[in-house]
Design brief:
Layout lengths: L1 H16 L7 E4 L5 E2 L7 E2 L30 E2 L13 E7 L7 E7 L6 E4 L5 E3 L5 E10 L3 E9 L5 E8 L6 E7 L5 E12 L1 E12 L12 H8 L5 E4 L29 E2 L15 E2 L5 H11 L2 E6 L19 H15 L5 H8 L10 E4 L6 H17 L4 E5 L7 H12 L4 E8 L1 H6 L13 E9 L13 H16 L4 E6 L3 E3 L10 E3 L4 E3 L1 H10 L5 E3 L1 E3 L2 E2 L6 E8 L4 E8 L5 E8 L7 E8 L18 E6 L4 E6 L3 E8 L2
Parallel strand pairs: 1-32, 3-15, 15-18, 18-19, 19-20, 20-21, 21-22, 22-23, 24-25
Antiparallel strand pairs: 1-28, 2-27, 4-7, 5-6, 6-14, 7-13, 8-13, 9-12, 9-14, 10-11, 10-13, 16-17, 25-26, 27-30, 28-29, 30-31, 31-36, 32-35, 33-34, 33-36
Helix pairs in contact: 4-5, 9-10
């Protein structure tokens, strides 16, 4: 409250002293430019920066099923000589099961009662909270009667026990066992210690530890604080699962959605394509368990009230890696994957794939309307493959909206070729990506002013201002980047007749596991925060309105004149007019806004301000709201509002028509 009063006082004094700009902004509330699509602002999720395993997917045990390339990665045996059972108390060895899925398990042989243990390190440790319950589960098959009990303990970085439970095991067949651990203190770097009582052999698999406090309290669910941050963005769509992981470095390592559904123990583990992509951030322990698979993505979209937008391989591996191609006459299985996915999402429960959805606990359809073919492919090979996909999908599902791609760049030969050819094919929506400097974003706020509103619609599917350079590990989520993105977004919104979907990328990053910067949301094992870029996205998404209307000064849209950028919309559900103005200058700007077509406004209105005087300022785990929105009340006069726009600020004004 004190901060809001101070903000109001400063704003008033600034308005009195600021030099008025060249004329008012005229908002014509009766002249609708375009309908604002419900999908205008959404979320792009890719498993990069440990965003899934070790992040959104709340599993705490790394390599729970011993399926990494090195099957014992993530596991240590501190009191064992792993080369000779004769020299110590026991040894754990990965064994092949002969099964098609989850082909390994762990064989533990305990030689004596000296306390042989296995320890799992988690994902840069395990984040556990005091007093909260954690569900432990595992599969075990003892050989003989030698081992009858197994002790599980959460231990801190000081090796002190935080929580423990002893589980009795018996019989020779595989069985699932469960227990609950409740830590007595919070710890960001906990580990799971397993100690065996007795002597003999026990086989183990699928050793898992989950917080009970997941999103919607689902077992094997998602991390609550991270989904809450997503939910507060009010996303109109969820694009998944990427990103370049859709393509894979090779086709064998592409993302195959059918391998990510069904029982967890039947989902194949895959090395993540980002594990050693960047020399500056190698992560050889980065794998995908697919506990967060396509069913969970659809469920998350439903929870968020967002349209699901899956992206599938078009038969081209990442062109920045191998560029491996499926021959055109061998493309049918890839096309069938797309058709089967639509049936999985939308088919009746008596259809083959609809039945699988029902058996997973969701008989109701997911009502999928969009599907993307390819991620960042370019050139004639992509156009040829997209054309075949488009014909096959439309033949069976004529109402499905298909998203194509213009490649990884916002201009140049590949972009121009792709756009030209996709227009010839009457593509419905074209995905454009741009990772550029803050200056580029400010200078290109009018990018879509020049697009044909009758042509293909645009999906601004991946964008983020780069403070240093694309893919630089030194990029920062600073205020200049966020402010510049806000300036650019005014142009996206003003051109809602062309732009139907937008999303920042990448979405998430673990503070100790990242490969790429900048990112919208950062987290460690216990905490998370939204960057200034996050608050820009949230501010626009929660104030988008329903219809775009003109916001002109001297008859022109504000696209950087006097360092100001503006857009306006109606919200017919609340009878409000919403004006967004971005001030990218270091000076206070006195600006009058006149609402034409309105005889009188209600006397009180609100303004939300996102501002910082330091362009290098950032948020952090211990300063999560250093840059965050502040609301205050302002007065109107008849059909006019007088504003004092603080330096380096994003301003959202909501006025209600009388």
């Amino acid at each position: 409250m004190i901060r809001s009063i101070l903000l109001s006082t400063v704003a008033l004094s600034c308005f009195l002293s600021a030099r008025p700009q060249s004329g008012p902004i005229i908002v014509s509330s009766r002249e609708v430019i375009a309908e604002m699509q419900p999908t205008m602002y959404g979320i792009f999720f890719e498993d990069i920066n440990f965003a899934a395993d070790g992040g959104l997917y709340a599993e705490l045990v790394k390599n729970r099923s011993f399926e990494f390339t090195l099957p014992m990665m993530g596991w240590s045996q501190p009191n064992s000589n792993t080369h000779s059972l004769n020299e110590n108390s026991g040894m754990a060895t990965a064994m092949r099961s002969g099964k098609e899925h989850h082909a390994h398990y762990c064989r533990v042989e305990v030689k004596n009662d000296s306390g042989y243990s296995l320890i799992n390190e988690g994902f840069r440790g395990m984040g556990v909270k005091a007093g909260e319950a954690y569900n432990l589960s595992f599969m075990a098959a003892p050989e003989g009667e030698g081992i009858r009990e197994i002790r599980f303990e959460l231990i801190g970085k000081d090796d002190k026990v935080l929580a423990g439970a002893t589980v009795a095991v018996g019989g020779g067949d595989w069985a699932k066992y469960k227990a609950t651990l409740v830590p007595e203190r919070s710890e960001a770097k906990a580990r799971l210690k397993i100690t065996f009582k007795g002597q003999g052999i026990v086989n183990m698999d699928m050793i898992s530890l989950f917080p009970q406090n997941t999103w919607k309290n689902r077992p094997n669910g998602l991390r609550n604080d991270l989904v809450t941050l997503l939910d507060e963005m009010a996303p109109g769509f969820l694009r998944f699962p990427g990103g370049c992981i859709v393509e894979g470095r090779t086709l064998d390592r592409r993302y195959q959605w059918k391998k990510t559904i069904g029982p967890l123990e039947d989902r194949d583990v895959l090395i993540n394509r980002w594990n050693t992509e960047f020399d500056h951030r190698p992560a050889p322990d980065y794998y995908q368990s697919f506990g967060l698979g396509f069913f969970e993505y659809f469920q998350l979209a439903e929870d968020l009230g967002a349209e699901p937008l899956p992206i599938l391989s078009c038969g081209m591996a990442c062109q920045f890696n191998t560029g491996e191609l499926v021959p055109m006459d061998e493309l049918d299985p890839y096309i069938q994957d797309a058709l089967d996915l639509i049936e999985f999402a939308n088919g009746p429960v008596d259809s083959p794939w609809g039945k699988i959805r029902k058996d997973m606990g969701h008989p109701k359809t997911f009502d999928m309307k969009y599907i993307g073919i390819g991620n960042e492919q370019w050139g004639p090979e992509y156009i040829a493959r997209y054309n075949v996909f488009e014909k096959a999908i439309k033949a069976k599902y004529p109402d499905m909206i298909i998203v194509s791609g213009s490649g990884p760049f916002a201009e140049g030969e590949h972009f121009e070729y792709g756009m030209r050819e996709l227009r010839k094919l009457n593509a419905g929506i074209i995905d454009e990506h741009y990772y550029k400097s803050p200056q580029w974003f400010r200078e290109n706020a009018d990018r879509y002013d020049h697009y044909d509103p009758e042509g293909p619609k645009v999906f601004a599917g991946e964008y983020a201002a780069q403070s240093v350079a694309i893919a630089s590990p030194e990029n920062r989520n600073n205020w200049e980047c966020a402010l510049s993105e806000a300036a650019f977004i005014t142009g996206l919104e003003r051109n809602a007749a062309v732009v139907h979907l937008t999303s920042y990328a990448p979405l998430m990053a673990h503070t100790e596991g990242w490969q790429w910067t900048p990112d919208l949301i950062w987290f460690d094992n216990l905490r998370s925060y939204g960057t200034p870029n996050y608050y820009v996205q949230k501010l626009f998404a929660t104030n988008k309105g329903t219809h775009v209307v003109p916001a002109l000064r001297a008859g022109k849209a504000l696209t950087g004149q006097d360092d100001l950028y503006a857009t306006a919309s109606l919200d017919r559900s609340t009878n409000e007019i919403i004006v967004k103005i971005v001030n990218t200058s270091a000076a206070v700007k006195a600006q009058e806004v006149v609402f034409e077509g309105v005889s009188r406004l209600q006397s009180r209105a609100t303004i939300t301000v996102l501002q910082n005087d330091d362009l290098k300022a950032e948020n952090a785990l211990d300063r999560a709201t250093n840059i965050s929105p502040e609301d205050k009340e302002i007065r109107t006069h008849k059909n006019t509002v007088k504003l004092s726009l603080l330096p380096y600020s994003v301003n959202v004004v909501r006025v209600k028509r009388s």
